[in-house]
Structures
1.
Amino acid sequence: MASHYGGIPEDVIQEIIARNSIESVVGKYVQFTKRTGQNQFGLCPFHSEDTPSFSISTTKQIYYCFGCHKGGNVIHFLMEIENIGYVDAIKLLAEQSGVTIPESNDEEYQREEKKRKRIKGALLEAARYFYANLMSPRGEGARSYLQKRAISTKMARGFGLGYAPDEWEGLSHFLKDKGYRDEELLESGLFTKGKRGQPVDLFRGRLMFPIFNPMGEIIAFGGRIMGDGQPKYINSPESPVYSKQKNLYALNFAKASCKKQLIIVEGYMDVISMHQAGVKNAVASLGTALTERHLDLLGRYTEEVVLFYDSDKAGQNAAIRGLKMIMHRKQKQSGLALKVSVAKVPNGKDPDEFIREFGAGAFQEVVDSAMPVMDYLMDSAKLQCTNGKKFDAQSYQMLVCEYLSWETNLISRERAANLVSSVLGVSTQSILNQVALAGKERKASEVISVERKTRTQTEVKSTHNLGETATNDELILLVLLSMMGSSYSNLFDKPLVTDFSMGTMRSIAKEYLPLLGTPEGDTNHLLEATHEYVINKRLARDVISECLMTTTGAHDEKSLLRYALDYLYRVRMDVYTRQKKRLAEQLDGMPNGPDKEATKKGLLDTMNYLKYLQEQMKSMR
């Protein structure tokens, strides 16, 4: 079953699921606004909407959205929301709930894990190589650069800084002498491929910054040129151990500060200068704008984020993009609790320059005066629309109305609109009316985009060469069976694999039916049995989640047994009616002989069984 992906034992997965209730996990991303019985509703985190269509069932421990039709259990939710694989979702849930996952026996998993360990080993050896070069005579230029930037030897050593000599194969030869193969080097993110296919050093003549994951393991590098050449920075590409959207520079150090606030700046040198000055809760993004994945990562380690952006035009544009993402994320995931504000370093200086000139105390005052996101956006709009002494009121109106439409908190929106009204000389209500119009236009364009995306997500192609259709009756039957638990032993007639449609449904039934009557015969295992199968042009997991969410009425064991038997007979009626039609067609024109007699007998038996099913169903009414 899917639950054995990565070789994680079944009982461990079930313990992880049991310790992570659907309400507690989903509640970190969704604010529930309505409760109906055992179901809770909120705005869907997977698509834009005004009316809550996303729901969870606390009894069945599943989620389903009636808008975009996504569904599953707690593992599937984390896979969707974090955009991670099955095993990574299990590991994240295990970490959050304190469950220890034993070493895997899965051969493929062990091969991948061995490869990741080898790559991490090569990266660690590379860090030693770079540091040794920094401390050697040929690292004199890099040491002088660090001295000019007022970075102490102790701080350089603490952050593992190094120097990559201006050589094409220096690091390559060093690591090969350590026993690393060409294919391992090419996957490490330290090399490009030469004309002969050999590894060629990616970093040459650069000051080197090791990039650590939150656990303190080296997973990549950044390299800065020390002269006037371009590009100023080169960063490792994505690799089996590194993704720039899942990591932040110096988070491994900053998380140890035990502060409830993290400061995000743009450069490695900014971070190091701040840590050296005692501001130890600083991190930096890794050559990319702040993403939703970064917000997820930050949310695990802090309650508040203060953003610093460069004061030039590129920095301001990056700020607007990042803040738009944050505001939209708050709209989609109303459970987002991370507090975000924006700080400005005076006189257009970057944090590194400011902290060296004025010290940590003055910098802390800048942090303390950080502005709420909406205040920053209002100021930014005014600056963007001012050219010397000329103020473009029409452009300002368009910008502020767009920015205000991102704000979901009505009080914050009205407070900002009041400030805008004084600038434009109009009423606050006029501003709010225009904001509502801008919001409708934005949502209309988003809906079109979401609908296109949803169509491509829901009408997926099967990865299995199997039939993909299912009747509503057999879906409901599976769902009722998953609710029975130990009551299954009291079911008068038991389902067979052949009761289900050929293809996907029969594959699911073959895997799931043997679990009925055992602790593994629950809804979670039914969802796990769907793998990545497709039913009626949708992921089977989503289809069955919808059926789980909408199937009600079995409030006691007697009712549940009756409903299950009723649907079992409905399914069989369909199967045997089709069989009757097929046999009748075979008889038509069949020559006399043993085959015809056998077919006649089969048809008669089928008709008698159909009559029996009809009588049974009638007696249950």
2.
Amino acid sequence: MSTPVLARRERDRGPAVTQAAVSRPDRLRRYNSLLHAATLLGGLLLLLFFNRRDYFFADEWDFVLRRGLTHAELGLFTPHNEHWSTIPILVFRTVFHFAGARSYLPYLLPMLALHLAVAHLIWRTMLRVGVGPLLSTTLVGMFVVLGAGYQNLLWAFQVSQSGSLFFGWAMIMVVDRERPSWRSDALGWLFGVLSLLCSGVGVPMVLAAALLVAFRSGLRPAVRCASVPALVYLSWYVAVGHSGYNGQNGGGGFLDSLAALPHLTWVGLTHVFEATLGVAGLGGVLVVALAGYLLRGQRRMREGGVQAVVVATALTTIAFYALVVSGRTALGEQGATASRYLYIAVALLLPAIGLALTELDNWLHVPWSVAAGVVILLAVYNVGELRSYAATNYTVQPAVQRRVIAAAQLARTQPVIAALVEPTYDPDISIQALRRLDRAGDLPAGPPATPAELLEAARYLQVSLTEAPLYAPSAAPRLVRFAGLPGAAGDPGCVTFDPAGTTTRLYLAVPSGGGSLSVTSEAGGSLQVTLNPGASSPLGSERPLALAASRTEWLNIATAEGTPTLTLPAQSGQVRVCGLPGAQAAVRSSTGSVTVQ
């Protein structure tokens, strides 16, 4: 309510009415602030519940095991993939100093704190640009539990992107003024550099701040706004950052990537709306509608209104997706629709979405409670999505924790002939690093590994493929039986198979000290190795070992526990296995059709 209206009412009705009129908006603002705080607290408790069984996974082991301030394999400024990750590394190393790898919760707390801080900055921005208070609170409440962006809510490693968003939004709020000053520039530079120090998401965040300054104050202040962060980032890139750009994410060359850029950017933008709303097919319509609203609002932006921040962050969303997909065209639409990128896009688009909904609500004269109720329903849907993704994590990450415990227990008492604990999903866990954690007492407490878990650990730590045998010829495995097509006689102790698309398996018995045998695959392919409790037991998880074409390689097995089972490559071409002396009787008793010399 405007000041002249209040003054007129004071003259006409007296000070009591004026005080009530003034205090009512204050009460509404206070209630809305309390509701916002409640949504943040409720969201935190919900996220802690969904993360209660998580453990370190994939990229996180790089920060836990390979980084450090001194004597580390990789330094603080070495990129993780293409990202400058100094601040996330420092966060992980600080937490590790106090908590080791015993619990995942201390690593989750910084990520969740930054996530909630980002939500609060977006809420403040939405209020400032004129989004309705209740709509601002409910939209941000939905963002707090954004199931469509689950990776940034269920993975402590995403402290990197949440950090870039937080410092980037701080930079935007600092420079969002009609007349930039050196003080605002200096603070903006600080927040911009901090955003870049967290991840590559800092690049579009600095761009958003520069666009905002350009819209409000012109090109020269915008260049000044971005100058220091850009100079710092370019210096890092020239010094060490370029090593993270190895071309592995590209998709067939520069021209191919350029041609795919518009389509993949469009796919990413439309996916933001479809995944968040849970309705397929509406993404394109909503992107066009939002773009039309922003174009219609350009006049106010040119007049220097606060809506400039809405246009700047919305345009940055397009630039963000273009930047993401340009480096991941080989992943196609899968890369463009990753949930961690959707999370960034929603964080950038929320002010524009909120302002558009506010004006639409005013035009249609819909009660605020109805609009807020629709957003609450969307929040409930996203909580359901978050719960579903968390349930998927429960089937993977506790298994990783048990695998780590089993590997450490195995390495204490048995020989280890492989370097990696689990090279498929967690290639940063080396046996040397695992032993350091074990000696320091930094592994999680838990019941001893079961025999099945120890066999699972042995599948990686006690099986290796090398160019030369690790064991003498006298220590050779014995063929217990085989299944599949018969083989053909060869040199002494050798048998040649021609799988030709069928499944051929060899069941072995290994001497107590370990043994080696050679495998030569004419067409290469994947040799699958399984360790089973017995020759008649159902097959457990298989470990794939890549065989080069027409090259003899040695399979080494260090454990006599269980029955190693080899599934030969099914590609066309012969597979020759040698180092099986005395297997002739076993083969004859199995089929009577194979000769082994």
